[in-house]
Amino acid sequence: MSAVVSLRRIGLPRLIVHASVLVICFIWLIPTLGILVTSFREAGQITASGWWTAFTGAAETSAARLGEPSTAKQNGATYVISGSVFEGGKGGSVRAFGTRVAAPTEFAAGKPADIGDGETLTINEDGSYTYSKNAPFESGRGKRVYLSVATPPSFTTENYRTVLTSQGIGQSFVNSLTVAVPATIIPILIAAFAAYALSWMEFPGRALIIALVVGLIVVPLQMSLIPLLKMYNEIGNFFGVPSRSYAGIWLAHSAFGMPLAIYLLRNYISGLPREIIESARVDGASDFEIFVKIILPLSFPALASFSIFQFLWTWNDLLVAMVFLGTGKDQLVLTGALNALLGSMGGKWEILTASAFITIVVPIIVFFALQRYLVRGLLAGSVKGG
Amino acid sequence: MISQIVSAVGVVIAGVFVCALYYWLSDKILQIVFPVPVDNVRAASVNLNRRAMVRPWLFLGPALLLLVVYLVYPVVATFFLSFYDRSGGNFVGLANYRWAIQDAQFRQSIFNNILWLAVVPAACTFFGLVIAVLTDRIWWGNLAKSLIFMPMAISFVGASVIWKFIYEYRGGSETQIGLLNAIVQAIGGSPQVWISLPFWNNFFLMAILIWIQTGFAMVILSAALRGIPEETIEAAVIDGANGWQIFWKIMVPQIWGTIAVVWTTITILVLKVFDIVLTMTNGQWNTMVLANLMFDWMFRGGGDSGRSAVIALVIMAAVTPIMIWNIRQANKEMGGH
To answer: Which positions in chain B touch A246 (Cβ < 8 Å)?
Structure first.
């Protein structure tokens, strides 16, 4: 059948192929998995242990003080202090303990440990301890012990509640939608009409316009920013309207997506069978009717491909939003909000990971639901034209 | 918030309606201005011709307007602004260019951009090709491809948070919660602050883009691999070639064109890389790249349009050869149409 199938017969042993693909998938998935898991952990646990230990429960090192010598009870020749290391209300199960900070796991829990000076200390898993000595305890404060405490895996949705309400991510989510949806839908129609004209209408300058469109596909956004920023400011001053507005960014996104849209749609529309269009013309249909009744329905796959591109691009964009939108609450998009949080919430991973996951969940749903069209669009855009 | 949703939905509906109305109305006006009388064949054919002459421009109008206002005009304007001072009001000749050549940060950015260009397109294409070959040979290949392709959907900012968490460093005796430092520690190394490690930090930022773009290369190259005619492979098998030889000597040469396309597409993306550097380091610790430097100068101290225009032009100049090549390819294709 295909070249790949025949290579299979003579290629490397299958097992190695399976194993390497598995490893690659694992590597590619791990980063995203990391923030997904972390976003459901409690703040304390996130900093206490790596997210990869989240399912086994974390081993936290903590310190506790045993009861004071004055509470010791004499039992024959030995003096005993007993109680629980979890008196501060903390819970968990002790895995190991030690008397030096450098070795918090020196002794296993539940077994009597000889800690020198004739002292014996037993700390059970539930935190209860027996500290005994064959002579009276010296007076002073209680002995300090170091514990390795296993906390059971626990997950919470609290982080999401926090970022959605108090960190403004909920509002930014709406802002992102406000930017992305119109900026996806408006250019499609405009580009489709242009693509039809460039495919099926004869007029002078057509080749030139196609060349222009192809050329503009790769023009870096950076070339446009300064003059547009000046233009927007002048328009804002002249009409007394804010220069940073949703209308401004919709038009900007529409225009920046236009070359690729026209190119993709023209590739597709010019490939439609000539007979359909010509027979419609013979039947007396105008170009407008042909476009609306024949071209648009037939080019659905291409329209879908482009809308996915454009949606992902506008949703994920940071640069255009930073230039054309304000940083106020009512205009800050998700990418901008996340960028701001990275600055202000530096080490607060419970906030950052939950926010990051909210920003990537929509594109990922779109991606998995419409992957077929995305791939088709990529192939049409890259392989065919170059 | 509710009112904002309502107004956004309203705009979508209104926008689509206005667009449709424009095309419909302009077509109607065209028919009224150039009527086609049934009794006068001559006038009818003249007017039909006129309609055919005007209609393409009605269809193209809005698209051309957007392209000219948002892309063509700004490109020209940026070119001229590069010869003017910070406010764009006074002609300063080549002063901005002279500044750029002597500016240490500009040189640093050029160096870093070249570094990115040398590493990222090559790495993405290489990994993409290897993964495409491997996944095409197993039954769950499509699932594997989906997973590797998925980062394409993630924003650069989101990806930066994801990777910043991997590179996280915690000082002193604290537990390392960043995966990379935990691994380094587990194999006996000492944890590092990866994103401020001179020179090498660039590569840690590049890893993010490679992670995102490998899926793109894989999808395109996988389609190209499937298009290789089987006879060429079979002939090689009969001649006694092994898998390695078939891959390098039969398959790769046949998809050179596609490899070039993937390479150039990622090259353009790399030239414009902005979000990753902004969110990871904001250009600190010698990681500045051109796009970030340009953005910096757009707003630094009230903005310097001359200097940032020069930086934008450098990016544009780097893209231009690819642009010309694309246009020539497109023209060739249309010639054969």
So the answer is: 8, 11
Say if the Cβ atoms of A258 and B294 lie within 8 Å.
no
Residues A169 and A244 in one domain: yes
**Pair B281, B230 in one domain:** yes
| The one-letter amino acid at B52 | A
Q: What is the pLDDT of residues B122-140, one digit of tens each?
A: 999 999 999 998 888 788 8
Whether A222 and B311 lie within 8 Å, measured CB to CB: yes
Distance from CA of B212 to the nearest CA of A (A): 9
- What pLDDT sits at residue B11? 75
Is the same domain home to B133 and B9? no
Residue A239, min C-alpha distance to chain B (Å): 19
The neighbour count for residue A359, using CB atoms within 10 Å, is 24
Strand, coil or helix: A131:
strand
Cα Rg, chain A, nearest whole Å: 33
Q: Is the model's pTM score more than 0.90? A: no
Domain count, chain B: 2
Contact in structure between B316 and B75 (CB atoms under 8 Å): yes
| Contact with chain A for residue B33, Cβ under 8 A | no
Residues B118 and B215 grouped into a single domain:
yes
User: pLDDT averaged over chain A?
Assistant: 82
Instruction: Please give the residue of chain A at the shortest CA–CA distance from B308.
Output: A226
Contact: B312, A220; criterion CB under 8 Å: yes
* Residues B127 and B188 reside in one and the same domain: yes
Q: What is the CATH number of the domain that holds A335?
A: 1.10.3720.10
**B194 and B50 share a domain?**
no
B329 and B206 both lie in a single domain = yes
pLDDT digits (tens, 9 = 90+) for B67-122: 999 999 999 999 998 898 888 788 888 888 998 888 888 999 999 999 999 999 99
Whether the Cβ atoms of residue A305 and residue A376 lie closer than 8 Å to each other: yes
Whole-angstrom Cα distance, residue A185 to residue A272? 23
- Give the pLDDT confidence of B24-61 residue by residue, as tens digits: 888 888 888 888 777 888 888 888 888 888 888 888 98
Q: Which amino acid is at B40?
A: N
* Chain B residue with Cα closest to A377: B220
Is it the case that residue B152 has pLDDT exceeding 70? yes
Nearest CA of chain B to the CA of A78: how many Å?
Answer: 38
Q: Do A198 and B60 count as a contact with CB atoms less than 8 A apart?
A: yes
H helices within chain B, ranges in order? Answer: 2-33, 41-67, 73-81, 95-102, 104-135, 141-149, 156-166, 179-186, 200-226, 230-238, 243-245, 252-254, 256-271, 275-280, 290-299, 305-335
Final residue of a structural domain among B22, B50, B81? B81
Q: Identify the CATH number of the domain in which residue B199 sits.
A: 1.10.3720.10
Distance to chain A for B199, nearest Cα, Å? 23
Closest listed residue to residue B232, CA positions, set A154, A3, A168: A3
Does A63 lie at the interface with B, CB-CB under 8 angstroms? no
Q: Quote the minimal CA–CA distance from A79 to chain B in Å.
A: 36
Structural domain including B71 reads: 2-81
Q: Using CB atoms and an 8 Å cut-off, which of residues 166-225 of chain B contact chain A?
A: 166, 168, 170, 174-179, 182, 211, 214, 216, 219-220, 223-225
**Which of B:268-307 have CB within 8 Å of A?**
268, 271-272, 274-275, 278-279, 290-291, 294-295, 298, 305
Q: In terms of domains, do B127 and B51 share one?
A: no
Sequence-separated contacts (24+) of A233-242 with Cβ below 8 Å: A242/A326
Residues A266 and A373 in one domain: yes
Structural domain of A315: 160-384
Cβ within 8 Å of residue B22, ≥6 positions away: B62
Task: Find residues 64-103 of chain A whose CB sits inside 8 Å of chain B.
Answer: none
